[in-house]
Write a structure and sequence with these properties.
- The complex is a heterodimer.
- Chain A is mainly α.
- Chain A has 13 helices and no strands.
- Chain B has 2 domains: about 80 residues, no CATH class; about 200 residues, Orthogonal Bundle (MetI-like fold), CATH 1.10.3720.
- The chains are: A mainly alpha, B mainly alpha.
- Chains A and B meet through helix 3, helix 7, helix 8, helix 10 and helix 11 of A and helix 1, helix 4, helix 9, helix 10 and helix 13 of B.
Chain lengths: ~280, ~300
Amino acid sequence: MAIPANLELVAHGERPRSTLARLYLEHERLAIGGGTLVAVLLVWEALGRSGLVDPLFISFPTQVAQAGWQLSHDRDFWNDVEVSASEFILGYGAALALAIPLGLAVGLSKRLQYMISPFVDTLNAVPRVTLLPLIIIWFGIGIWSKVVVVFLGAVIPILINTQSGVKTSEARFIRVARSFSASRLKIFSSIILPGTVPFIFTGLKYGAGRALLGVVVGELYASTAGLGHMIADAGNTFQTDIVFFGVLVFMATGLIVVALLDAVERRFENWRPALSRS
Amino acid sequence: MTDAADGRRNGMSSAAPMRAANEELQMPGALRWYLGHERVILGTLVVMLFLIGWEGLERGWWADMLRPLLGASAERLQLKPIFISSPTLIAAAAFRMFFVTGEIWPDLAWSGAGYVLGLGLAIAVGIPLGLAGGWYRRFSYAVEPFLSALNATPQVAFLPLIVVWVGTGLGQRVLIIFLLAVLPLAINAHAAVRTTDPRLVKVASSLGASDWRLLRTIILPSSVPFLLAGLRLAIGRGMIGVVVGEIYGSAAGVGAMINQAGARFQTDKVFVGVLTIVAAGVILVEIVQRIERRVDVWRAPA
């Protein structure tokens, strides 16, 4: 009986707080996070501007913003964006188009799994960027070598996740559907596929990260255009502000792609009763 | 598989499973043996086919075989060794590099040094950072924006900056391996603290245990599986760091060797390098998994 009294004490203690304090407590996460971010940016700006650390090495936020503004009027920059975006979209699109159907098939057929898994497991163990020198020999230094690296990076996580999604379909549901003589197609479309969707999206998010990595490494390694190429070039000529801006663009791309995938996933998942989540 | 499923579907009567079992007994011995080892047999078969197909492309077996059918265009089926190499060429190159000239050992040592330092730094920073973030809510609010931003970025994009800061020596590789490996460690350590059984913490603190005591006796032991899982992820990310760091401006190391061999079209050496990295990654992950199993022994089944 001591506990309720204790709780009341706490509640009484909260009440006299000023509205400002309450506002802060409600948004503490935002306040502390935003505050730290601003503080770091200010210190960075001060270090760079005062020349305490050579701006050649660390640049500073307003310089980065300025570089970004200038780049946005630069035709070459938009060309780089276009090249990188097409590498990402082509490679990622191909990975998605191959890995989801193949993952479903491999999850459904044990024999297919036996035949494919030695290759998938091996490729999964290889950091795919290691293959870059070979891919350059095979596809040249143009856009296609990067498309292949992006594809190889993204295809494995999507495939593995899709496959394990099928494998973990609720066996009881399938048994019930069978005993009500549901056709194979019906079982697939109404039990297995919906159960696999969250796994597919996990794979897609993972794959997106790998795909971006492929774009960057591929372009750093050997390329004639693209954002990674721009970053490498700027680094070689000590234009640190441009490097930072390029990194920011990649960061934003990563955040946007994951947010988009989350939105699509919610769209697919809103039929699911809330109960089954807990 | 299909037979069993059909049996279950029609199987209102209990005779059906019996019949299935009988059929299995009546199968010829060879077939039964095949079904028992289907996984190994099919897997080996496909891999063998793949390797033979590859070897044949390089040696021109398929071109010779199909020449009567296709005429001159069959020549396309013979590829130059600089293009794809072949399993036997790769095996020969590996033997040479490891045991005859021994040229790969200095590269391995150089890469290993960078890897150990980078991964060590990532462990030393990532795990305390994650533990602190899991324990102190406000601290986690403060570092969260940076960590999620870093998580969304392909960390290798920082390479040109790192080169500006520390040059292309050992420091560059240590830093890029650190950047790649630190996040999974920090994120897992954070999750580990968050999923510690709150009842245990409450009991201990109401009995007057200090924060340090709580960390040592409750949080750390229950974190171990998470930390090891994070370590497994970090090992893989670190391997990417070794290769990318060395490919991008380094004179020594396995990654640099791969890079130089690629530039000289020594495709067999490239494959040897890739396989070496893979073997190193697989061995490290296997060691961590062994430790995981050992650590899990004392844990009461949930």
